Structure formats: C-alpha cells, structure tokens
C-alpha cells in the first residue's frame, strides 16, 4: 500500500470452540487468505476466542503485519485481536458494564465479556492513531425487547465516550468491529454523533441508507448496501430463520469501519483522513470447500491521507474545497447527540431498570422458595418407607440447591449490579442533557 493510504479490514471470524461449525478449517482458510496478500495495514478480528487460532493467524501475517495484540476479558475472553503494519506503543481493553445476564448461558455474552479493545499505533504521517476493535451485545435486534436492547445502548454510549476521548487527546481514531446494529438504529446514532465518527461505507456509498421500495438481490445488498451478516449468499445464513429486517434487505449491515480526525483547538492544519474505497470482502466460499469463511462477511476500507497544501496525485480520492476546509482545521466545539436522542436513551434504560428490578424480586422470591423446599425435603426424607426413594430426593435437593444459589446470585448480586449500572448511565445522561439545554440557552442569549 501507498504510505498515503491506510487499508483496514474488519472480520467476525465466528471462532467459538466446540460451537462454531468448521472452525479449524475456516480459521486456516482465513489465515491463508490474509497471508497471500499484503493489501492491509490494519486488521481487526472479532470472535477469535481460541488463542491457538490467533497465533496461527499472527504467524501467517507476520511478514507484513509484525505487530499484534490478543485481548483478554471475561471468563472466555473478549474474542478480539488487532494486527498492524505500524508499531504498537500502547494497548487497552475496557469491558462494557452490561453484557447480558449470567443465566443466559446460550447467549454467552456475559461469559465472554464484550469489550472495547484498542491499540495506539505510530503512523509515519499521522503520528499517534488509536485503533479500536469491538463487538457489541448481540441480543435484542431491532425489535427489542427493550430490556435486551438497553444493554447494547450502554455499550454504544461507553464506546462513543472512549473514541471521543481518544480524539480529544489529539489522536486520529480508527474504530472497527461488529456492532450488531443496522445503521439506522439508536446505538449507531449515538456512536456517530457523540464520537463524531465518519462511517467509511457511507462516504463511498452515500445513498446506502436511503429507503428503497424494492428488495435488492442478495448480491446488490452486498455491493450497494454493505450487507455483512444474514446474507442468503453466506452458507451459514442460507436457510436460517431470519427476522423481518434481514428478509426485507437480504441481510444486515452490522460490521463497520469508522474514522475521525483529532479534536484540537489549534489552527494548525493537520493531515486529513478520507475514505477512498469501501467494499465487502470474504464473500466467496473457502477454496475447495462448500462453506463460507465465517457467518459474517468482512469489510475493507482504504483511508487516504491528504497532507495540507499537497497537490493531489493520480488515483487520489477527490476532495472538494468544502471538505478540505471543514477538516483542515478542527471545530472548536465537540459534537453532541441531540436532546431527543438523549431522552430516548434515558427512557429505554429506565424501562430496562424497572424490568430488572421486577425480575430480581421474582428471582429472590424463588430463592426463598428453594430454601423452604430444601428444609421441607430434609425433614420429610427421614420418614421415607422405601430406600429407593432416597437417591431421587438427593438429586432433587441438589437441583434445589443449584437453583437457589443461582437465583440468589441473579436476584441479589447481578440484579443489583445491573440496576446500578443502568442508573449510573441514566444519571450521566440526565446531566449531559442538562448541559445541552444550558448550551442551547446560552446560544439563544448571544
């Protein structure tokens, strides 16, 4: 790649041990595909939970991406990894405060510890660039229920704050990953507006989010609308029961690459990042096999660096005069989400808080019932006339003890944790909303 371009790839590898189909074969195929090209400068992978898989990919791309980081979080790991052509000088992982419930073993989000991982790289032209990789909470979809969607809202708010803070510290920001949200949803609005992130796909496909009267073909959905998940073209999605949104648009755009300039009050002109190319990749099947590389497709974006005053070279993306003026000096005010958006978030989180309170009370009541049944079973078991009944009641008491302990943890420890986390964000948003109202009043006065 040219030194004036940064090529970024993001891919959800679907690499959960014992659960993901054809995991070993697919990881080998992904690594081979990446090793046969040197077109990427930064790669962010999600759902690469097995460390041996990460090591295999790292060794395969080490010749042109010598710097890499595997991130740990939760009980099973975050499943996040970043590979870079440029030196990594710092790393960080920030687990999200809400990641589903521990009782939701099938969903598994609580156990893997969804998080925002990042590295700071040193680029020869841009200087420090903070690269984020994330995978937001999965459940909830576009239709709720609200108590599930609220966890992803919290994820989005916390991620947006991290990206915004990186830019306020004077760094360029590149943020990629599986956000488990289509572009028009509230979590994506929060991320774009609060962190002032630019969606690379929309730069090169500006009408991608426009409503359409017709359902696109599966290939049009990929090429024109950036569909990366639940596509009929993907062997793991074909024939799967999909929701209304996925059926209407032949899949969903859930994977993104964002970028932004540093936020600075200096009038010094800085190099400008602009997306030159963005396309969905890894859409073909694994060579020699009848399955896809993952249940997601990958997304590639090429970010072009325009240095102030430098004449454009052949093949450069076209920068309008308005675009150059807008980005050459940074705004004096930080971007903000709207009051309406903040209000909607508060309402959603408050609804989740009420649901969590009610659920915790029911779980604690079930714990009390389990204790009473254990006492009753212990007393009654001494009067059993038949010895063969004892093993049955032993199993029953083991089940009651497990259920009671689980309900105690769910209802008291986790329930209180969830409610506190929700209230922290609600109160933070209330203060934020008051600040917006004060700023709006100040502008009207002056």
TrEMBL record:
For this UniProt entry, the molecular function terms from Gene Ontology, in alphabetical order, are: metal ion binding; sphingomyelin phosphodiesterase activity
Known InterPro entries for this protein?
Answer: Endo/exonu/phosph_ase_sf, Endo/exonuclease/phosphatase, Sph/SMPD2-like
Its GO CC terms are: membrane
Q: By its UniProt entry, which SUPFAM superfamilies does this protein fall under?
A: DNase I-like
Q: Which Gene3D superfamilies match?
A: Endonuclease/exonuclease/phosphatase
Q: Which domain of life is it from?
A: Eukaryota
Question: Which key words are in the record?
Answer: Hydrolase, Lipid metabolism, Magnesium, Membrane, Metal-binding, Sphingolipid metabolism, Transmembrane, Transmembrane helix
- What pathway does the UniProt record associate with this protein? Sphingolipid metabolism; Lipid metabolism; sphingolipid metabolism
Q: Name one GO biological process term.
A: sphingolipid metabolic process
List, for all copies, the residue spans of the domain called Endonuclease/exonuclease/phosphatase: 9-296
Q: What is its main location?
A: membrane
Similarity remark: Belongs to the neutral sphingomyelinase family.
| Protein name in UniProt | Inositol phosphophingolipids phospholipase C
């Amino acid at each position: 790649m040219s030194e004036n371009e940064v090529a970024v790839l993001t891919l959800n590898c679907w690499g959960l041990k014992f659960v993901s189909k054809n995991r070993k074969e697919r990881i080998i195929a992904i690594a081979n595909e990446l090793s046969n090209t040197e077109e990427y400068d930064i790669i962010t992978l999600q759902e690469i939970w097995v460390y041996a898989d990460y090591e295999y990919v790292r060794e395969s791309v080490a010749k042109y991406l010598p710097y890499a980081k595997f991130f740990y979080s939760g009980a099973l790991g975050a499943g996040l990894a970043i590979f870079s052509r440029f030196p990594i000088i710092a790393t960080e992982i920030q687990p999200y405060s809400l990641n589903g419930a521990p009782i939701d073993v099938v969903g598994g989000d609580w156990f893997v510890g969804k998080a925002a991982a990042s590295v700071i790289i040193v680029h020869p032209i841009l200087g420090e660039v903070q690269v984020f990789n994330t995978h937001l909470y999965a459940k909830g979809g576009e239709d709720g229920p609200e108590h599930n969607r609220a966890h992803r809202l919290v994820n989005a708010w916390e991620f947006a704050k991290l990206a915004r803070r990186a830019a306020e510290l004077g760094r360029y920001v590149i943020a990629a990953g599986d956000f488990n949200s289509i572009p028009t949803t509230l979590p994506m609005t929060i991320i774009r507006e609060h962190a002032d992130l630019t969606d690379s796909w929309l730069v090169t496909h500006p009408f991608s989010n426009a409503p359409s009267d017709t359902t696109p073909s599966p290939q049009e959905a990929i090429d024109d609308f950036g569909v990366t998940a639940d596509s009929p073209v993907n062997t793991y999605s074909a024939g799967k029961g999909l929701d209304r949104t996925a059926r209407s648009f032949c899949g969903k755009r859930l994977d993104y690459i964002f970028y932004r300039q540093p936020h600075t009050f200096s009038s010094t002109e800085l190099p400008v990042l602009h997306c030159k190319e963005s396309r969905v990749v890894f859409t073909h099947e694994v060579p020699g096999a009848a399955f896809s590389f993952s249940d997601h497709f990958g997304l590639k974006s090429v970010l072009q660096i325009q240095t102030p005053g430098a004449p454009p070279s052949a093949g450069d993306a076209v920068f309008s005069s308005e675009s150059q003026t807008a980005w050459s000096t940074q705004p004096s005010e930080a971007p903000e989400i709207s009051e309406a958006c903040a209000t909607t978030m508060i309402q959603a989180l408050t609804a989740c808080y009420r649901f969590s309170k009610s659920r915790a009370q029911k779980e604690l009541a079930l714990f009390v019932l389990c204790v009473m049944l254990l006492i009753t079973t212990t007393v009654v078991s001494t009067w059993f006339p038949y010895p063969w009944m004892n093993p049955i009641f032993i199993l029953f008491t083991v089940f009651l003890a497990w259920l009671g302990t689980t309900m105690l943890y769910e209802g008291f420890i986790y329930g209180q944790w969830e409610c506190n986390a929700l209230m922290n964000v609600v109160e933070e948003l209330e203060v934020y909303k008051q600040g917006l109202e004060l700023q709006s009043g100040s502008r009207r006065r002056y």
